[in-house]
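Suppose a colleague, Dr. K., hands you the sequence of a protein chain of 779 amino acids and asks what its three-dimensional shape might be. Before reaching for any lab equipment, you can write down a predicted structure in token form. Begin with the sequence itself:
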Amino acid sequence: KSDVDLLLLVPEDIEAPVRSRLEQFVGLTWDIGLDIGHAVRTAAECLREAERDITVQTSLLEARYLAGSRRLCREFMAGVKAQTDPQSFLHAKRLEQEERYARYSDTPYSLEPNCKESPGGLRDLQNVLWISRAAGLGSTWRDLARHGLITRGEAVHLTRVENFLRGVRIRLHLLAGRREDRLIFDFQEALARACGCLPTAARRASEVLMQRYYRNAKAVTQLNTILLQNLAAMLQPAPSGIALVLNERFQVDRELLDVRSEDLFEREPAAILESFMLMQAHPEIVGMSARTLRALWRSRKLIDGKFRREPRHRAQFLSLFQQQRGLLHEFRRMNQWGILGRYLPTFGRIVGQMQHDLFHVYTVDQHILQVMRNVRRFVMPEFAHEYSLCSQLIVAFEDHWLIYVAALFHDIAKGRGGDHSQLGKNDALRFCRQHGMRAEDTDLVVFLVEHHLTLSAVAQKQDLADPDVIGALARLVRTERRLTALYLLTVADIRGTSPKVWNAWKGKLLEDLYHATRRLLRGATAQQALGLDERREGALRLLRFYGLRPNVEVPLWRQLDTVYFLRHDAEEIAWHTRHLYFRPEGIDPVVKARVSQIGEGLQVMVYTRDQPELFVRLCGFFARLGYSIADAKIHTTRHGYALDSFVLLDPLNQLGYRDTIGLIEHDLVERLRSYAVPDQPANGRLSRQVRHFPITPEVNIRPDEKGNHHVMSVKAADRTGLLFSVARVLARHQIDVHTAKIATLGERVEDTFLISGSELAKTATLLRLEQELLEVLAV
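The predicted structure, expressed as tokens, is then:
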């Protein structure tokens, strides 16, 4: 049910019996279930209220007679018309639209858009018609076409888009049984079926629906922009000035790029891409005129196979990547007006395509542009403080525009089925060859697209203390240039998926992997590449800095093997040693916590005699506190002590890290000293997105290449206590955990464990273990 706004217009001298009957009427509407917003006012009261409130003025403009005195209604409507100033109304409605856009993050591409209020929703269309009505230009799209504000074809297109949005909204209300304008996850699948959308082999029905919605919303924002600019030019004409002629095709009029003739693009198709090149070359131009935008929108279909094969057009498109400024703005503008998708049909197929993978929060096309933005920010000096290593590397990287090309293609094959990295690699290769790029440049772009997920997978799922892991990556990338480009693209890609996915810990893992691989490529031995000697020497320097005498570390370090020193950096080794050198065989557990040196989360060290279910105890304790474990290094010393290190994050940012350090150091010692039963964390609630787009849990256990341990990978929907549940199953089977790498991707986790135990050698037991793990992972 939708709301009904009802005005009960009364004369100045209304009698008491009439007012009583009006009250009875309002009560009756409530009794029959109408959700009405009503007002009982005189004409003068309405006009005074309209002067103060633009929403009241808007409502009065579109008021229509239902019943009662026609004379009173005519006089009232005449008063509303006389009071309305079209110029002021236009200005107020544009401001109102900007404020509304800000409330919805200035994008139509949110995961759960509001089909009425979000950018590209019905309100954008109503806004144009309200302004048109205020200006006396009519209240339908046909009226606007008759007054020359739009063409007949545009009027038909607007009607079609409006009908689609209305149909979505009506079906949404029916499904919800209430007024609900958000396309929330709860209704997307059912709404898709109601709208006749069918699933494909690679996409859900809801993804098909949302792509249709986003494309229609995009058309609304396009036409809304053109129409508001046209109405502004008609109602608020700027003082006549002299346009600055750029060339025989374009001029600058009131800081806007303007075509010198409306049929320019039909006569000279090359001017389509030239318009974006001019925007890059002239920072003083703030936008495109309505005439230019309409010409672009109307001529986008001129970009066909013949247009794409023209060498001049290919050179123009490639030059857009190579300019010093305006890259992101113009690629976004090309996407907004359908030019990018026409020039690259493969890109056109992913415009508006949502990914219900629980960690991408943007459509594929918006994600790609977000990644290009992130790479671009590495270049800009004003953002050098954000990711200083990336900024240093890209400044020294010759032809960094090639990374923009790779960013454009890295996810371009999403939704086709199959491996999108391989399919995207083929698209990138074809593009590079068609655009005459050098062989070495083509090789770099194709490599980046094919392997854009590799660095992230290695950093988050493999043991970075293993020389074989670093060696395999070095053999894959082969050159430092490739490694650097892949690192830059990976950081930009992860940051472009969702604000929740990137964190400082992932940044450190990637940076450590980059440095180790670069050292190996520069000729270092495996031990030098991993920095084993550097770690020890760095830790000793720090110990001396803290005033510890030479050799005080020796008794403790004798109990630590090479694996320990490879898995911890110099600062961590020094931190551990400072607290343990004088009690290498202490009776009581030692727990120390501190704010992470990378500025996000907590680091916790636990040192105690090894005991059954220790890892389970620790996971349960941290989960009960509300922390998620980002990384765990489980080490057993030569003399049977556990020296475990954890990186903890507060996913909801509710806990003050410094406030909980004392709590952890005291309470965890007491729990370990008493050998208490492991804490059972509360069952975590699943998000609505997980409930409606569930992930099928996966468990894979395989021997590592050396045959000493097994690698267990787990994929499931994230929830509080998940790691505790996994650890408890492993403990029941007497499986030891050596490392745990926890990769949280939005609402999804992809965890990797290095484990060992005699049970893993038995096929029947291994199958039972996998089955038990799948049961606790299922939601």
